[in-house]
Specification:
16 helices, 439 residues, alpha/beta, globular, single chain, 47% helix
Length: 439
């Protein structure tokens, strides 16, 4: 295993397993590494390691009972399930933990200096803050360096000449978006999808999950709002065309359609997280563990503003830290990361009902981190002049393509968006140059 590719939670589990299996070696490696318990990100592992180190310091020997003495039965079972992870030499994993901790501290320092630059009252103060950010040293783990330029250029040349991409895009589930985005979602990028409450954000996110699964991708869906059972039922309704039944029994034809839908869902490789996390670290650790089990092809998080606060002074700073980590995770795992976000009510105050990027809660950092930002829009209930099911999607930011708006068709009974008969961009808005749109 390449230590540079090991996420924090995996390295920490390896170290704990090695402590239980090979105490003397682990104790010496821990002392030599310069690690502290505070560097550990998994709370269960942190408590177990702390208990083990305390016992070893007293008796010069410690085992599983010492490590798990203060844990609950569930936590004890978690630790015991990882005992097979012990290695002959845990020193590289300890170095990984320490350097990852130093990287996090460096990124926090850089973000602090960048905020100071953004709020500076004079050009001199702004320059000093930018210089301080540039001077922050971000350590690297052995093997973590990027590809050398010659190798990267060779790969890019081969892709350009052959027309075959090493990492092909993942469909968005909508033809109009796939065209505007040169095929769909691409690896290493952060995509933000936003709409008002009840505006169909989760429904379109589930359609994106379906499109990725149909292409054989493994998808992780982090749901901070809905339970997994509700999402599964919505998926079944989406696939079968059968409206959610509630307390009504299904007809024979509906039952057959649902049977086929659930069978198809069973064959797909997707995982849903629906537990309330104590921190974003817990979500990141789960995603890294899923990726280590089998590489992910896409991550969807629904939704950003429900993530626990980082403890920052203001909510917008906390949200900004979450988006930065999401962008970094997309690059680390080499996947498209779809982040669902909630706008504020500024559009209602303006009276036009149209969203802008500044309407996103914590918009400054979101605009900076995101490669693509789109807003779903449906006319207010009772509004005249719109056909039934009328909806739009507005690409407000597109780092690698045009900013366009498309008409969609919303099927409320089955929680589904589809392409309208008219797939060309809606006129009368800033669509960028005509040559930039792939018709």
């Amino acid at each position: 295993m390449n230590i540079a590719d090991v996420c924090d939670v995996t390295a920490e589990r390896v170290v704990l397993a090695t402590m239980v299996a090979n105490g003397d070696h682990a104790a010496k490696a821990w002392q030599a590494s310069g690690c502290t318990v505070e560097m550990l990100t998994d709370t269960v592992v942190r408590r177990a390691v702390s208990a083990w180190l305390d016992a070893y310091a007293i008796r010069k020997t410690a085992g599983l009972l010492d490590a798990t003495a203060t844990l609950s039965q569930y936590e004890r079972d978690r630790v015991m399930a990882d005992l097979h992870l012990d290695v002959a030499d845990c020193a590289p994993y300890l170095r990984s933990i320490r350097v990852h901790h130093e990287q996090r501290e460096a990124m926090i320092a850089i973000q602090r200096h960048m905020w100071e630059a953004a709020t500076a009252r004079s050009p001199e103060d702004r320059l000093d803050a930018l210089s301080a950010a540039k001077a922050v040293h971000v350590p690297r783990i052995d093997g973590q360096a990027s590809k050398d330029k010659a190798t990267l250029l060779k790969e890019l040349f081969a892709e350009d000449v052959s027309g075959v991409e090493k990492l092909p895009p993942v469909s968005t589930s909508l033809r109009c978006l796939d065209k505007a985005m040169s095929g769909g979602f691409r690896a290493n990028r952060l995509y933000v999808l936003s709409a008002r409450p009840g505006g169909g954000k989760t429904s379109l996110a589930l359609a994106m999950l379906v499109a990725a699964c149909k292409e054989g991708k493994r998808v992780a869906f982090v749901s901070l709002e809905m339970e997994a059972s509700e999402l599964h039922r919505r998926l079944a309704s989406y696939l079968s065309g059968v409206p959610l039944l509630g307390s009504r029994a299904a007809t024979p034809s509906e039952a057959e359609a649902l049977r086929k839908a659930y069978a198809q869902m069973s064959a797909w490789d997707y995982e849903i997280w629906d537990r309330p996390p104590r921190s974003y670290d817990e979500v990141v650790q789960w995603l890294c563990a899923q990726h280590e089990t089998q590489p992910l092809g896409m991550v969807i998080l629904d939704y950003l503003q429900l993530l626990p606060s980082t403890g920052a002074e203001r909510d917008d700073l906390s949200i900004g830290q979450h988006t930065t980590r999401s962008k970094n995770l997309a690059k680390l795992l080499g996947i498209p990361f779809i982040l669902i976000a909630q706008p504020n009510r500024a559009a209602e105050v303006r009276g036009d009902g149209r969203y802008r990027m500044s309407d996103l809660r914590g918009s400054g950092q979101i605009e900076q981190d995101a490669d693509w930002i789109a807003f779903l829009w449906q006319p207010p209930q009772g509004a005249s002049g719109y056909p039934e099911g009328y909806a739009e999607i507005d690409i407000a930011k597109h780092r690698h393509g045009p900013k366009v708006r498309f008409r969609l068709q919303w099927h409320g009974a089955t929680y589904r968006y589809s392409d309208s008969d008219e797939e060309t961009p809606i006129k009368g808005i800033d669509t960028g140059s005509k040559s930039s749109y792939v018709a």
